[in-house]
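Handoff note, outgoing to incoming analyst
You'll be picking up this chain. Sequence as last confirmed:
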Amino acid sequence: MLAQINEAAAYIRQFSREVPQAGIILGSGLGNLAGEIMDRTEIAYTDIPHFPPATVDGHSGKLILGRLKGQPVVAMAGRFHYYEGLSMQQVTFPVRVMKALGIHTLLISNAAGGMNRNFRVGDLMIITDHINLQPEHPLRGRNDSTLGPRFPDMSEPYAKPLVAKARAIAAAKGISLHTGVYVGVQGPTFETRAEYKFMHIIGGDAVGMSTVPEVIVAIHSGLRVFAMSVITDLGIRDEDNVITHDEVLAAAKAAEPHLTYIFSELVQQL
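Most recent structure output, in case you need it:
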């Protein structure tokens, strides 16, 4: 894997001499933050060695190099998912590459289903912890100690200083935020009512089909992590609740300006 990481990173470095300080992963319907990146260069995933193509609607499938609020960054406009038929190593490969490019902080966004009865569609939730219910682990197999330790500590995967900064940024702008626990599942089906209830009982506030593998690999790589969910549907309601991907994208788009503002200001303060 190390050779593949280095090959991908070497290809990307041809397009920029700057060392990115932060990596950003943009989830379903949350790609417009890329428009805030100045002096940017866009590289299609299909052009980068060992990158699989993005296949999900709402994910444009390109890597963006440039500056956000004056800080050099690398952003993924679209991510990879285990349910697409990829291995966990493929899903998390871009995190490894961004680390090789020089980032020290990873910011992640996603669209998630709300299970906390205080949540409403369009709310933002800072992830303070997660529960991993995905069927495969991105670190399974032989460990390469040059990439990280065999048994990384996951007691605090989401950096508390970054959470505190994001909350202060939102408060100063009058943006309402929740904090909570994210449950990572395989997908691609949305959850049944019984599954929503189960995941809420075990401590989950929101559920989605991404993020957890990327966070695990980021921690394994020694990166600081901040993650935020846009609540795009409510699975805990008692009434009929049919969820479609189009509705998820629409809700994410409506909430995106606030997420973009928080991410941009947070990058500026790194």
